[in-house]
Amino acid sequence: MISDARSIRIQDYDYPLPDERIARYPLPERDRSQLLHFREGNIERRSFRDIPTLLPAGTLLVGNQTRVIHARLNFTLPDGRPLEIFCLEPLQPTDYALSLSSTAPVTWKCLVGGNRRWKTGEISLEISTAGHPLTLHAERGARTENAFEITFRWDAARPFSFGEVLDAVGTIPLPPYLNRAAEAEDSQRYQTVFARQEGSVAAPTAGLHFTPEILERLRTGGVEWEALTLHVGAGTFKPVTSETLSDHAMHREYFTVSLSLLRNLHRQLGEGLPIVSVGTTSMRCLESLFYFGALLLSGDIPGEGLDQWVATDERFSKTDPAPAISALIDWLEARGDTSFSRYTQLLLTPAAKPRVVDGLITNFHQPRSTLLLLVAAMVGEDWHRIYTYALENDFRFLSYGDSSLLWRRGAGAK
User: Fold this and answer.
1) Please, which domain of life does this record's source organism belong to (predicted)?
2) Are 49 and 149 found together in one domain?
């Protein structure tokens, strides 16, 4: 096993991805995708419709119920030139639900395409939605790193929440590697069927393959479903440009989990039953819960978020996951809280094995990405074999591509 995460060379997580292997559109049916099944070194080609037969009874399956917002806003400047505002995360109020449900002005951290054209002043966008005129105003504030603080207010004949305004005015922000504009179909297909909580600017794409019928077959087969919320940020597409990870700044994302989910995780860990993550976002959240609990066991109170290098802390290398999750449960119960919300910058790499998750359902990721590093954290050097097999057997790659079910070696033997 790699011992030092900071010294990992990103060139060791590169592979040739031909442009024609990128799936730019979804298949007509969500669950018609191929599925690569990897367990104990063996690779087999299956259909995603086989997933209920591949997860044993007693499995806890955890998915991300975040919903993608229409975060891309296209304005026209007074001189007629276009300007794009891309909403990243709320600043005032900072809570996603409060901001998106607000009917009063809100401030968001945003990317601004062509910001040099927009010197000062307020810009506006007028539309009609459901027969109601709506005018959205945007005012640029301070610069924050490569983004800006943008305050939005709107005029309408009836009260609109900011979430409704985005739905009416904005468009779905497709990943840049799809290299196409969003189309009407994407508003539905770039969402999972279990999406509930608005806030993401990218879909948790491993969940795109699920249908209500698949979820029902899983339930009747003895697989328990739980949901968490992690709002996926644009940083998920940020490439690693440094030679080693030591110089890479991991993006942060906001999550919320229920006390019920934590109790179920503790039960699974205690009984040695499988925990399977639907997607890298869910896995990042689940593994973060271990480190928050481990911090509590060491006497630290959880702060606003989790540092990207926490998995390299030797204090936690021998901490068992069940007591860590138990510590987090006890801390929440003592406070009278029924949920846990924080930011995480956790960077998962092959230098530290997963502490909570036994299996991962995920698509095929970009070369030289932190998502590929997360896959390697689960399967080690076998990621080379897995991706070579997928390339040689016509699997479709990236967000609208095919799926895989990857098991950690020795999964179930906690």
Assistant:
1) Bacteria
2) no
Question: Which of 170, 201, 230 is the last residue before a domain boundary?
Answer: 170
135 strand-pairing partners? 126, 155
User: What size, in residues, is the chain?
Assistant: 414
**Identity of the amino acid at 81:** R
**Displacement of CA 241 from its chain's centroid (Å):** 21
Q: Sign of torsion, CA 137 143 148 151?
A: negative
Collapse the DSSP code of 38 into the 3-class scheme (helix H, G, I; strand E, B; otherwise coil) and give the result. Answer: strand
Take residue 84 and report the two structure tokens written for it: 């794009």
Tens digits of residue pLDDT in 286-306 = 999 999 999 999 999 888 999
Number of independent structural domains in the chain: 2
Residue 300 DSSP symbol? P
* Closest among 325, 365, 251, 277 to 21, alpha carbons compared: 365
Within-domain flag for 143:
yes
pLDDT (tens digit, 9 = 90+) per residue, 128-180? 877 789 999 999 999 988 899 999 999 988 889 999 999 999 999 999 999 99
Cα(12)–Cα(215) distance, rounded to whole angstroms? Answer: 37
- Residue 144, token pair as written in the block: 């924050």
Cβ count near 21 (within 10 Å): 16
Q: How many CA atoms does the CB half-sphere of 202 hold within 13 Å?
A: 22
C-beta of residue 239 within 8 angstroms of C-beta of residue 184: no
DSSP 181: -
Q: What pairing do the DSSP bridges indicate for beta strands 147-156 and 72-76? A: unpaired
In which residue are the tokens 């801390």 written? 331
On whether both 240 and 334 belong to a single domain, the answer is yes
pTM over 0.90: yes
Q: How far is CA 152 from CA 122, 210, 234, in A?
A: 10, 35, 20
Among 170, 198, 227, residue at a domain's last position: 170
User: Can you list the alpha helix ranges (DSSP code H) found in 104-154?
Assistant: none
Distances (CA, A) of 253 to 87, 120, 285, 395: 14, 30, 9, 29
Cβ atoms 138, 120 nearer than 8 A: no
Residue 36 backbone class (left: φ over 0; alpha: ψ -120 to 50; beta: rest) = beta
Boundaries of domain holding 108: 71-170
Report the run of H or E that residue 200 belongs to, with start and end: strand 197-200
Please, which residues have CB within 8 angstroms of residue 318's CB and are 6 or more apart in sequence?
none
